[in-house]
Structure to design on (678 residues):
């Protein structure tokens, strides 16, 4: 018998992976766009957020960071960290203890920064990115991943693919990510023949459907 | 007032004086980082907070703890025998040792379970017994038995590792009893009563005050942490719903919710945190519930009065650990004593827990005392009265200073094939000077407890 896991925990792990990667992706894009706002195009931040169908307003490059991190929109990094924390708390018994601690630390750091806006600069972003790297480092340092780790990884990969498709389209790297996702889904489905059959029947019709298709595959893995 | 300082205490303070006090803050950082929380609802708001932790441990000499251990084993053995007897033959009632009326009026008594005997006849699997050390007799006194869902063990378990990392000198210089075996005691007890299947910890969910503990213990015990909807009963058998839809048989449930919420089909139909049908599976002998349903009768504050008599009745032994002197207004003689001495007694409402419903006569006005007497007169079974035990303070560290605070001690006793007393426990202290209420839900903090020798 493989590792047992409730549907709730599997879902929480999957979304924890997605939120962490979403924060990671946003922060990774933020500094180059910040530079672009200063040097080339003040509107660069707005263009970035258009990729998420979000309209933001800001005064200057520093203000862009504040709005991106803590603005009133659904890609607010502090809010995403809160979602990540919530998912981590619910399924904490499936997460490496150190990784769990880093998730809480990430949340606390961003909450503190939200209260003191003057702290929002490249150091905060670098520290947050380091914490996320540490989280994944802790998750993947075990030689043999458990089913719970695979759900976490699945969330991360699907979010990464989502980011890539939004800004780079359906290229070689997207295909590579899709292969990795299918591999992980295949591994998880191998515990259940019915799911395996359902999973292989799905195809990616067009690039706009890719994320929905991937998400549907995950949903087919988890039986509520 | 603190207890007489022994060689152990002296050596502790000697080592303490050489430690870097600034490192005290590391404990709070650790608890915040790992969300080691005790959650509260205040004014309708959910508040996540870490329990206040005091760096100065309670020190109990190994030889002294050995006596506590024997006393607790004796007490739990008798309480388990009492529950098994009460719900089957009820000889103790028939023979008049415990009055029938007292049992019937105990809110935790569930007559629907009369005649049912659980797996291996064990009912008191995981128990928290509250004790204090009396300054007058210098003896440990039992204040309360918690035989339903005692909480708190995860806090000292979590902090001990950190303590060893921050201040290793204490552990290098003393023989401090290791404490990591506690989850294995629970695991063994679960396996012993397991009726076939996996072990699970049933939690009310993420917004319960002790969710951290549920999650921590599930992980350490190697059991699945589940909410009610993640279990299902089919053909009087309990199953765990795996993420892929497969049903896995459950043999033992360490439930962290009270009887009244555990099964909406059987108890409170509005309970959203219970498992429909779990009681049917339990009564069919297809799953073990830890602790047993109906245990509330034995940790009723009124029944507490009779525990020394139970020890004599079932074991033919003198109790090793004493109760606090207790009076039941139900008995005429006791009521007269209570009314005569009410201003120096502690009055407890038997239906309350967690430090609620505890009234100190010496802090009440004439009018309040008179009202209280009227309440007691109207419903004598609802109250007990106890002599106020002047128990020892513990020294606590507050912003660089040492201050004395009232502190109790919750010992954990696990019953499976044998009875194990954890060589640690939860020392709870009051944050304010002079306060006798140390419960976490009343804002009390906790200390590590070192059972040790030189």
């Amino acid at each position: 018998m493989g590792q047992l896991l409730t549907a709730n925990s599997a879902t929480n792990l999957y979304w924890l992976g997605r939120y962490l990667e979403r924060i990671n992706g946003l922060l990774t894009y933020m500094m180059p766009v910040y530079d672009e706002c200063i040097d080339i195009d003040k509107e660069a931040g707005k263009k970035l957020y258009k990729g998420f169908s979000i309209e933001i307003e800001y005064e200057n490059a520093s203000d862009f960071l504040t709005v991106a991190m803590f603005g009133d929109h659904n890609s607010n990094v502090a809010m995403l960290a809160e979602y990540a924390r919530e998912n981590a708390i619910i399924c904490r018994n499936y997460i490496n203890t150190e990784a769990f601690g880093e998730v809480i630390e990430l949340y606390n750091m961003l909450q503190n920064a939200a209260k003191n806006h003057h702290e929002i600069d490249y150091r905060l972003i670098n520290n947050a990115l380091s914490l996320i790297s540490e989280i994944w480092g802790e998750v993947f340092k075990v030689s043999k991943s458990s089913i719970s780790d695979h759900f976490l990884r699945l969330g991360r990969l699907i979010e990464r693919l989502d980011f890539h498709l939004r800004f780079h389209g359906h290229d070689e790297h997207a295909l590579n990510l899709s292969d990795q996702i299918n591999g992980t889904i295949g591994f998880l489905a191998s515990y259940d023949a019915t799911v395996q059959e359902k999973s292989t029947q799905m195809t990616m019709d067009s690039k706009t459907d890719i994320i929905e298709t991937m998400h549907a595959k995950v949903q087919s893995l988890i039986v509520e | 007032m603190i207890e007489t300082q022994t060689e152990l205490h002296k050596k502790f303070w000697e080592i303490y004086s050489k430690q870097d006090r600034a490192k005290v803050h590391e404990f709070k950082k650790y608890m915040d980082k790992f969300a080691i929380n005790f959650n509260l609802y205040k004014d309708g708001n959910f508040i996540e907070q870490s329990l206040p932790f005091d760096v100065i441990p309670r020190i109990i000499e190994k030889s002294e703890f050995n006596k506590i251990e024997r006393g607790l084993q004796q007490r739990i053995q008798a309480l388990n025998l009492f529950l098994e007897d009460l719900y089957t033959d009820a000889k103790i009632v028939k023979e008049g040792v415990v009055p029938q009326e007292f049992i019937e009026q105990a809110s935790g008594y569930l007559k629907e379970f009369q005649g049912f005997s659980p797996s291996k006849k064990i009912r008191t699997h995981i128990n928290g017994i509250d004790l204090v050390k009396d300054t007058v007799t210098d003896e440990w006194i039992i204040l309360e038995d918690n035989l339903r869902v005692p909480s708190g063990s995860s806090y000292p378990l979590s902090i001990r590792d950190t303590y060893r990392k921050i201040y290793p000198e204490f552990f290098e210089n003393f023989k401090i009893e290791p404490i990591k075996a506690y989850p294995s005691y629970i695991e063994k007890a679960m396996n012993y009563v397991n009726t076939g299947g996996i072990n699970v910890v049933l939690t009310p969910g993420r917004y319960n005050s002790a969710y951290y503990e549920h999650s921590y213990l599930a992980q350490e015990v190697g059991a699945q942490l589940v909410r009610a909807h993640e279990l299902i009963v089919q053909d009087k058998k309990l199953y765990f719903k795996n993420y892929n839809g497969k049903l896995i048989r459950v043999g033992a449930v360490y439930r962290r919710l009270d009887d009244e919420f555990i099964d909406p089909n059987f108890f409170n139909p509005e309970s959203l945190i219970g498992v429909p049908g779990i009681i049917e599976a339990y009564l069919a002998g297809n799953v073990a519930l830890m602790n047993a349903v109906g245990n509330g009768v034995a940790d009723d504050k009124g029944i507490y009065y009779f525990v020394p008599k139970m020890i004599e009745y079932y074991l033919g032994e003198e109790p090793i650990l004493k109760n606090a002197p207790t009076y039941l207004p139900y008995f005429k003689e006791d009521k007269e004593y209570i009314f005569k001495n009410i201003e120096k007694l502690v009055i407890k409402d038997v239906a309350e827990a967690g430090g609620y419903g505890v009234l100190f006569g010496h802090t009440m006005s004439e009018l309040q005392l008179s009202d209280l007497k009227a309440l007691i007169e109207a419903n004598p079974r609802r109250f007990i009265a106890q002599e106020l035990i002047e128990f020892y303070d513990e020294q606590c560290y507050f912003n660089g200073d040492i201050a004395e605070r009232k502190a109790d001690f919750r010992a954990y006793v696990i019953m499976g094939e044998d009875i194990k007393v954890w060589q640690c426990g939860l020392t709870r202290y009051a944050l304010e000077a002079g306060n006798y209420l140390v419960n976490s839900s009343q804002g009390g903090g906790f200390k590590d407890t070192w059972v040790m020798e030189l």
